[in-house]
Design brief:
By secondary structure, the protein is an alpha+beta fold. The chain has 2 domains: 78 residues, no CATH class; 102 residues, no CATH class. It is 32% helix and 29% strand. It has 5 helices and 8 strands, in the order βββαβββααββαα. The strands form 2 sheets. It has a 4-stranded antiparallel sheet, with helices on one face. It has a 4-stranded antiparallel sheet with strand order 3-6-4-5. The chain starts with a strand and ends with a helix.
Length: 198
């Protein structure tokens, strides 16, 4: 999404990429999954005390009733790093480097339903995608800025990820003062119209 600015009823809304935003490792904080990796050159995933894959697999088999979902994690290492939960079609530059898993207790702690395996699996895959973007500095963070008729700044917030333009605009709108929601509604209307023409 390029920088966008609209002016309605004397107020102006600007959306743009925040080049000053400092990215934080997404593995720090509340993640559903535990990302356990082993690699000789890279320190990837979460901190752990598992010496190797065999030791980890024994741990998981002992905790079989507690582990809810576990996925293999693969690394493609060639002119950059790429992580995935499915194998890359390259036997020379890729291999399995670990696992991402969650327990029933993790689900309970973070409020995930225990009866929707597909949702949990999707969340773990999304965590890998987010971490992959972080490793490759692929995530742009966006801000919104609202000014009044005298160009005084009245509201500004940053840190929004544009994985879907309309979704991002709605998320921004939730944080803005309700008196400026009409500005976001107008941008959403324009974006929907633009998408329908594609």
């Amino acid at each position: 999404m390029r920088d966008v600015e609209i002016k309605r009823r004397g107020n102006s809304l600007k959306i743009g990429v925040d080049n000053s935003y400092i990215t934080v490792n997404p593995r720090v904080g509340n993640n559903l999954g535990h990302l356990i990796c082993w690699h000789g050159r890279y320190n990837l995933g979460d901190k752990h005390n598992f010496i190797d894959r065999k030791f980890f697999e024994e741990y998981v088999s002992d905790k079989d009733n507690e582990v809810y979902c576990i996925l293999k994690v693969y690394l493609y290492d060639h002119s950059g790093l790429a992580l995935s939960t499915t194998p890359f079609n390259d036997k020379f530059d890729s291999r399995q480097i670990g696992y991402i898993y969650c327990t029933k207790q993790d689900l309970k702690d973070l409020g995930f339903p225990q009866d929707d395996y597909e949702k949990v699996e999707t969340e773990l895959k999304n965590e890998i995608t987010t971490y992959n973007d972080y490793l490759n500095n692929d995530t742009d963070y966006y801000y919104y800025e609202i000014t009044d008729e005298d160009d005084n700044l009245v509201d500004k917030m940053t840190g929004f990820v544009n994985d879907n333009k309309i979704k991002m605009l709605k998320e921004m709108q939730q944080f803005a003062d309700s008196q400026y929601h009409y500005l976001f509604n107008e941008l959403i209307r324009i974006e929907k119209k633009r998408e329908s023409c594609l």
